[in-house]
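step 3/5: co-fold with pterin-6-yl-methyl-monophosphate
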Amino acid sequence: MTPRGPAPLPDRLRAADRTLVMGVVNVTPDSFSDGGRWYTPNAAVAHGLTMLEQGADVLDVGGESTRPGARRVPVEEELERVLPVIEALAQRGAAVSVDTTRAQVAAAAVERGAVLVNDVSGGLADDDMAEVVARTGVAYVVMHWRGHADVMDDHAQYDDVVADVRRELADRRAALRAAGVHDGQLVLDPGLGFAKPGAANWPLLARLPELVADGYPVLVGASRKRFLGHLLAGSDGTPAPPLARDHATAAISALAAANGAWCVRVHDVPASVDAVRVAGAWQAAQGSDDELAVDEDARTGGTGR
Ligand code: PMM
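step 4/5: write tokens
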């Protein structure tokens, strides 16, 4: 199948002046980050609606935990968990993303109104995913991944983590393109915490502009992850628990936004909405400063004084 010409992400997945914020709706009993607090469909929908009010641009609904060591959920159970929540949130006008590695779940979610498929395996976990993405034309997050949660820690060796992640993402893009997915559908994600030892996450953040320079929207999912727990460890070395990692998450949202991220995926929406707004205003002022300098140059005859 030949790839179609480039087309940008849908308008509702773009903001002119700032990075987007994706709120996490985990419909799972065992997520590392929120421990199943929103497990029933009603609780998950209510939580999603709250995040919309708090300023989330996209809601990411997932029914399978990806925490290290987690076991897989049968597909029927994943469908039962996510579909009612996706449908209800889409009907309320939300831009909904489905967090799944399964083609069958992705296809059903798009039918119920999802506008983005967030696949932490970048198409590697299910050979049919590329066909679903190509056929539906849905926007698609290609995350860097080296194996399911039960084995990913065995695949965490890198020469240069940033170069290796970029190269493996380029391989995924080529495979998706060959299956008929077009480049304009794609979002890239470095996959923080997925087959990444703690220290490997920092270069992926610090060198984010290299990934951004590959020319695709970039999603950053640092929220409440283990490497932040280690950063914030107490004096006895005990990692900070997930719910104590939100301030650090917001700091990363600001820095990721300032470094060109398209979107940040977070559990605590209000702080990251403020963070990306700060980054947006900061960058706009840098632009307006340039304009001021040009105006000033015109007035002073080019001395700028
Ligand atoms: N992290 C998690 C789940 N889904 N999706 C993308 N695109 N990027 C991520 O970093 C990511 C993800 C794991 O976190 P959770 O259990 O809190 O949802």
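step 5/5: annotate
The pocket of pterin-6-yl-methyl-monophosphate is lined by residues 24, 26, 31-33, 62, 65-67, 99, 118, 120, 141, 143, 189, 191-192, 219, 221, 265 (CB under 6 Å).
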